[in-house]
């Protein structure tokens, strides 16, 4: 410990003793102040030590002791509306300039948390000393000007803020494209600032606690101005009192109210007075005075725009309603027109892609084995590199849709086997402005750079060769139709034959004979319709109608059967050489991967040993390795990210297929320095329908119609699959309804023709039944039987 700190400790002890003696001997009951945060910590310690309530209306204070009452709102309350302003204008990055004071630490931390909720990043926090010189400020502002961020949040006392903004005017940072947002440290006193200060703050947006212009407030302001003018007649322009002055008045009023409610001569006057202050509530000049946990509560802010000779209200903010233009109509959301620095009415973008106005340097990894993805070649004609591929087209399309007024140029970096992590360090160190190519998004890389959302299919899969198998077997003729369809067809053959027999056997001699002859001719007729060789002459129109419908059904069924069987006999079926990772692991097969990629780490985690892994650097090497197979120095499968496999299949469509599950990976993303605002804009651009359509077009350009290729390579042909019952259910339904209706009509006609015979038969049945009933009743009564003459017949009863 040096002599200075020893002396400072002695002075502090001496001052505390003197202050303690003053409070004790002069019977000080409470202290109002300080009005700045610099003395808050010491005064709070003094009040807590002597049990004397301290009432401070300083806006910034991190003191938290029982006898220290904060009669002004906490600075941290304003971080919510500040973050909401950034989000309302779609600004995703900002820089905070603040006074170098320990008391501002809490608001900075709260501001970071509040902006993170809106996906906004605080790019930098610059602490400025209260006595910062012009040269010091000039150096700081020039460094900030080199950053792409154009949104600055100022949190400092008015004098320092005025110096900062004056120097910002000098270096050209109060012009078109810049945004300056000041906290309540400026907004609360903006009406009392000098005209010189106001001139340096043109276009600044600030906020202040809202004070309602009630009759009580207006009368107070009128009396205050009159009295001030009487005592200071040399001053022509008397400003309205600032919000801190209104808080000071309310603080004094609260203390006077509390003193009148307690007995200050008690044994613990400080504690008694503290309790009274905490329970004091009234409508003050600055709003409702109410202390919660020793802190004044506030929920309404007024958003003002410093323009011209003063401040203009552009809206209001509350936690419940957000922004609204008029207090009388909170349904009118948003803010009024704001005039920004440079006297422009259009809201700035909030950042500049190229602060120095030069070309953006877009790094592209040198790659030659996968031309569909990224291809870098040298052109002797132009003496320059030519960069093309799927990734390049996507990036160009996005930049065109974003309409950025800045040019960029591609710069190949590294070589074909360079480590991408080392290349991304160039982006991290801001030696290049971005990296565009087949860069896989990983957690470790996200700690170095900011990635856009993946612009390719996300995942890791494998490609294997397919082997040909003979498509015929002993029972191939059964395969065209499913089991259900075979059973349904046979059932309808029997049903149709039965219906035709019912309709014909009474009137057609060809359907008569012994039972076995009738059975044979019936079902011979039904099955002969299969080849349309039935020669039996039909007599009934109903049976002819049934057969016409049935022959139509048979025609459709046989045609479909023939087509399916022909396809099965002529198309060779292709089967994957391996279908899962387990097959490859069990058989100890060699598998391939792309050299220099992160896939090798995934393969090791799946259980593959390094001795079974073989790296390749081009599509041609993939093809050669798969054709040779594990037995001949090649591999049984190649694992890679889906975009590479799509590129492979687009070139080598025949003989290969993509199989197995898809393992989740990050996909390809464009890399920018951490905090780059362009990342958010690209994320939004990806969601546009027009961009999605362009993405699909670019995908077809470089990869072709992958679905057609997959169908060919897998050998799956829709015509070779078995036909199911559902495909013909409509035909069977029509045939069944037709046969059923014909059968019902026939039975109806027959019943009509045999009406008399049926009536006699029914009467005979009824007579026989009645006779048997009488006999049963006689037996039940145990009566002897009596011969009764009935209708000429003798019946025993």
Automatic annotation (TrEMBL):
Bilayer topology: Multi-pass membrane protein
Segments crossing the lipid bilayer: 484-503, 515-533, 545-563, 728-752
Leader sequence residues: 1-19
Pfam family, one: Lig_chan
Any GO molecular function: ligand-gated monoatomic ion channel activity
UniProt keyword terms in alphabetical order: Disulfide bond, Glycoprotein, Ion channel, Ion transport, Ligand-gated ion channel, Membrane, Receptor, Signal, Transmembrane, Transmembrane helix, Transport
Domain Ionotropic glutamate receptor C-terminal: 361-705
Compartments in which it is found: Membrane
One Gene Ontology CC term in the entry: membrane
Cysteines joined through disulfide linkages: 653-709
SUPFAM superfamilies: Periplasmic binding protein-like I, Periplasmic binding protein-like II
Superkingdom per UniProt: Eukaryota
Family: Belongs to the glutamate-gated ion channel (TC 1.A.10.1) family.
Stated role: Glutamate-gated receptor that probably acts as non-selective cation channel.
Protein's recorded name: Glutamate receptor
Species this chain originates from: Oryza nivara (Indian wild rice)
């Amino acid at each position: 410990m040096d002599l200075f700190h020893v002396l400072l400790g002695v002075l502090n002890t001496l001052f505390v003793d003197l202050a303690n003696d003053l409070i004790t001997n002069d019977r000080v009951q409470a202290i109002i102040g300080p009005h700045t945060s610099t003395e808050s910590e010491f005064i709070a310690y003094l009040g807590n030590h002597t049990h004397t309530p301290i009432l401070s209306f300083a806006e910034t204070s991190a003191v938290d002791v029982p006898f220290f009452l904060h009669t002004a709102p906490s600075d941290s309350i304003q971080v919510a509306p500040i973050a909401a302003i950034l989000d309302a204008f779609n600004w995703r990055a900002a820089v905070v300039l603040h006074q170098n004071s320990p008391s501002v630490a809490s608001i900075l931390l709260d501001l970071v948390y509040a902006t993170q909720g809106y996906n906004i990043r605080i790019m930098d926090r610059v602490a400025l000393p209260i006595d910062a010189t012009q040269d010091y400020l000039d150096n700081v502002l020039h460094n900030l000007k080199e950053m792409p961020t154009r949104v600055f949040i100022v949190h400092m006392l008015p004098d320092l803020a005025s110096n900062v903004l004056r120097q910002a005017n000098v270096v050209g940072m109060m012009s078109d494209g810049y945004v300056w947002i000041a906290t309540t440290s400026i907004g609360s006193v903006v009406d009392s600032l000098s005209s010189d200060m106001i001139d340096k703050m043109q276009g600044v947006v600030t906020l202040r606690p809202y004070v309602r212009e009630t009759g009580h407030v207006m009368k107070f302001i009128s009396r205050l101005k009159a009295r001030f003018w009487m005592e200071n007649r040399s001053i022509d322009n008397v400003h309205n009192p600032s919000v801190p002055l209104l808080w000071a008045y309310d603080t004094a009023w609260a203390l006077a109210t509390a003193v009148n409610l307690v007995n200050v001569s008690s044994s613990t006057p400080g504690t008694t007075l503290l309790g009274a202050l905490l329970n004091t509530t009234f409508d003050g000049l600055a709003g409702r005075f109410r202390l919660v946990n020793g802190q004044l509560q506030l929920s309404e802010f007024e958003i003002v725009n410093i323009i011209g000779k003063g401040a203009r209200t552009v809206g209001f903010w509350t936690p419940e309603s957000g922004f609204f233009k008029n207090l009388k109509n909170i349904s009118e959301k948003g803010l009024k027109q704001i005039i920004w620095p440079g006297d422009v009415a259009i809201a700035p973008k909030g950042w500049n892609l190229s602060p120095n106005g030069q070309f953006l340097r877009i790094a592209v990894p040198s790659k030659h084995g996968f031309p569909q993805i990224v291809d870098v070649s040298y052109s002797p004609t132009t003496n320059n590199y030519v960069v093309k591929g799927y990734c390049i087209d996507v990036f160009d399309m996005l930049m065109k849709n974003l309409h950025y007024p800045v040019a960029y140029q591609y710069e190949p970096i590294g070589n074909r086997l360079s480590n991408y992590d080392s290349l991304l360090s160039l982006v991290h160190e801001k030696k290049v402005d971005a990296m565009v190519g087949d860069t896989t998004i990983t957690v470790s890389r996200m700690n170095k750079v900011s990635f856009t959302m993946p612009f390719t299919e996300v995942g890791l899969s494998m490609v294997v060769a397919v082997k040909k198998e003979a498509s015929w077997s002993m029972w191939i003729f059964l395969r065209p139709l499913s089991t259900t369809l075979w059973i349904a067809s046979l059932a309808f053959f029997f049903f149709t034959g039965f219906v035709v027999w019912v309709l014909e056997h009474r009137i057609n001699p060809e359907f008569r004979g012994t039972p076995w002859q009738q059975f044979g001719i019936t079902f011979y007729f039904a099955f002969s319709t299969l080849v349309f060789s039935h020669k039996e002459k039909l007599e009934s129109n109903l049976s002819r109608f049934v057969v016409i419908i049935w022959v139509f059904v048979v025609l459709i069924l046989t045609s479909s059967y023939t087509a399916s069987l022909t396809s099965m006999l002529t198309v060779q079926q292709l089967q994957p050489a391996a279908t899962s990772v387990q097959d490859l692991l069990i058989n100890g097969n060699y598998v391939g991967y792309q050299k220099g990629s992160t896939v090798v780490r995934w393969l090791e985690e799946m259980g593959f040993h390094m001795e079974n892994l073989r790296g390749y650097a081009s599509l041609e090497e993939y093809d050669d390795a798969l054709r040779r197979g594990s037995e001949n120095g090649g591999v049984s499968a190649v694992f890679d990210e889906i975009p590479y496999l799509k590129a492979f299949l687009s070139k080598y469509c025949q003989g290969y297929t993509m199989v197995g599950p898809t393992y989740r990976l990050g996909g390809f993303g464009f890399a920018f320095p951490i905090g780059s605002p362009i990342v958010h804009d690209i994320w939004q651009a990806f969601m546009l329908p027009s961009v999605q359509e362009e993405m699909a077009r670019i995908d077809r350009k470089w990869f072709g119609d992958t679905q057609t290729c997959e169908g060919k390579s897998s050998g799956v042909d829709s015509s070779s699959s078995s036909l199911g019952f559902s495909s013909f259910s409509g035909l069977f339904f029509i045939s069944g309804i037709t046969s059923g209706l014909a059968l019902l009509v026939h039975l109806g006609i027959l019943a009509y023709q045999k009406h008399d015979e049926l009536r006699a038969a029914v009467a005979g049945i009824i007579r026989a039944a009645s006779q048997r009933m009488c006999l049963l009743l006689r037996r039940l009564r145990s009566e002897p039987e009596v011969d009764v003459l009935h209708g000429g017949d003798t019946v025993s009863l």
